[in-house]
Amino acid sequence: MFSILRPYIFSLDPETAHDLAIKSLKVNILPKSFFKVEGEELLEIKLFNKLLPNPIGLAAGFDKSAEVYNSLFKFGFGFIEVGTITPKKQLGNPKPRIFRLEKDKALINRLGFNNHGSEIVSNRISNNLPDGILGINIGPNKETKNKEEDYFKCMEKLSIYSDYITINISSPNTEGLRNFHNKKEMEKLLTGINKIKKEKKINQPVAIKLSPDINEEDISSIIELIKKYNIQCIIISNTTDSNREKLSDIKKNEVGGLSGEPLRKISTSLVKKFYKETNGKIEIIGVGGVDSGQSVFEKITAGANAVQLYTGMVYKGPGIIKDIKKELISILKKENLKNISQAIGINA
Questions:
Q1: In which element (H, E) is residue 81 found?
Q2: Nearest to 138 by CA among 189, 95, 184
Q3: What percent of the chain has pLDDT above 70?
Q4: What is the DSSP secondary-structure string of 258-298?
Q5: Could you tell me the sign of the dihedral formed by the alpha carbons of 39, 42, 46, 47, in that order?
Q6: Which residue segments constitute the domains of the chain, with CATH numbers given?
Q7: Nearest partner of 228 among 278, 290, 266, 178, judged by Cα
Q8: Is 24 exposed, middle or buried (0-12, 13-18, 19+ CB in 10 A)?
Q9: pTM of the entire structure?
Q10: What angle, 0 to 180 degrees and rounded to 10, lies between the N-to-C axes of helices 219-228 and 264-278?
Q11: What is the DSSP annotation of 95-123?
C-alpha cells in the first residue's frame, strides 16, 4: 500500500506528510498480527534487563509528543522512543525545517525540539499505558539559561511513565546542547542526574544519546564518565551537521541534522569503537542508516545490543519492520546463529 501512496506522500512537504502520518496513526485499525513473521523467537533479546520481541526500535523524533506509540507498536517494533520532550511546550524553529534528500536516501531536519511539553505528555501516557517497552527522550527548552535544570525537571516528571529515559545532548538544532560532550559539562550534568535519581527514588535506566561528530580522542573520557555515573546505555548516534561532501541532492547544504543512509557507516564505526572500549559491558543502541536486515546485522555485529530507525521508515513505509525481521531471520539461519544475541560484537 505504501508503494502506491508514496508518490502522493512525497509530493507533500515533509512536515505535512509527517503530520498526516500522525493523524492516520491515531485511527490505526491494522491488527498487530499483520506485521508478524515466522521464526520471530530468534530475534528476542534483552535490553535494560527486559525481554524485547526483537532489537528493532523506533528512534525519537517521529512520535515527538507521545501521541501514537501504541499504534506504532503494532508495526512490530521491539521498542519505541518518544520525544524529545522539554519541560515546557515548544514550537521549534521556523518552517520549512525538514528536507528530503531523495538521491541520498536521507533527511535533513532543523526542527528544534517542537513538542507539547512534559505536563501534557505525562498526562497522555498515564491515560494510555504503553503496549510495549517505551523510552522517553528528554532535552532542554531553547530559551532556558540553565539547561541542566531542564533535564532534571523532565527526569522528575516523566521517568515514572517510561521503561528508560534518554538524555539527549546531541541534537545539532539547539544552541549549546552539544557542549555537554565536554568532560566538565558532562560530569556536571550526570552528577545532577544521579542526584535526582537518588532523591526521587527513580529506578528507570538512563541512556545518553551522543553526536556522531565527536572527536575520537574524546571517546575514552566520555566512557570514563558513563561508567563513573552508572549510565546503563549509550545511543550512537544522533544526526550529523557535517559529512555533506559526498551527497548528491541539491538540498545537501540546508542547515540541520543529517540522517539516513549517509550516516550508516559513520555510526556503525562509532558503535564498534565504543563496544571495544567498554568491553561490551555497557549496552549500546545503534542508530543511523538502518533500513534493512543487513544494516541491522552490521550494527549488532559491531557491538550494538539493539538498533533504532526513523529515516528508513520515511522512505520504505511501515512495512519496513516486517521486511527487516524476515531478512534478519534469514541471515541468522545462514550464519548458524540460534538467537540474535549471539551476533553482538562478533565483528568488533
A1: strand 79-85
A2: 189
A3: 99
A4: EEEGGGHHHHHHHHHHHHHHHTT-SEEEEESS--SHHHHHH
A5: negative
A6: 40-343 (3.20.20.70)
A7: 278
A8: exposed
A9: 0.95
A10: 60
A11: SP-EEEEGGGTEEEE-----B--HHHHHH
| The one-letter amino acid at 184 | K
Residues 6+ apart with CB under 8 A from 72: 25, 58, 62, 63, 80
Q: Which residue intervals of the chain are DSSP H helices?
A: 2-11, 14-25, 69-73, 118-126, 147-158, 183-199, 219-228, 264-278, 293-302, 311-316, 320-334
**What is the 3-class SS of 7-40, one letter each residue?**
HHHHHCCHHHHHHHHHHHHCCCCCCHHHHCCCCH
Measured at the alpha carbon of residue 56, what is the angle toward residues 9 and 115, in degrees to the nearest 5? 55
> Which residue from 123, 203, 207, 128 is spatially nearest to 165, judged by alpha carbons?
207
Of residues 267, 303, 195, 283, the one with CA closest to residue 231: 283
Name which of 165, 251, 242 is nearest 200 in CA terms: 165
Q: What is the pLDDT of residues 274-285, one digit of tens each?
A: 999 999 999 999
Of residues 83 and 292, more confidence is placed in: 292
Q: Are 112 and 102 in contact (CB under 8 A)?
A: no
Q: Do the beta carbons of residue 262 and residue 286 sit within 8 Å?
A: no
User: Do strands 106-109 and 257-260 pair parallel, antiparallel, or not at all (unpaired)?
Assistant: antiparallel
Q: Is the dihedral of CA 21, 30, 308, 116 positive or negative?
A: positive
Mean pLDDT of the chain: 93
Q: Active-site residues: which are they?
A: 171
pLDDT digits (tens, 9 = 90+) for 315-344: 998 899 999 999 999 999 999 999 999 999
Task: Locate 60 and state its grid cell.
Answer: 525519537
pLDDT confidence of residue 1: 64
Please compute the mean of the pLDDT values over residues 184-213 and round it to a whole number. Answer: 94
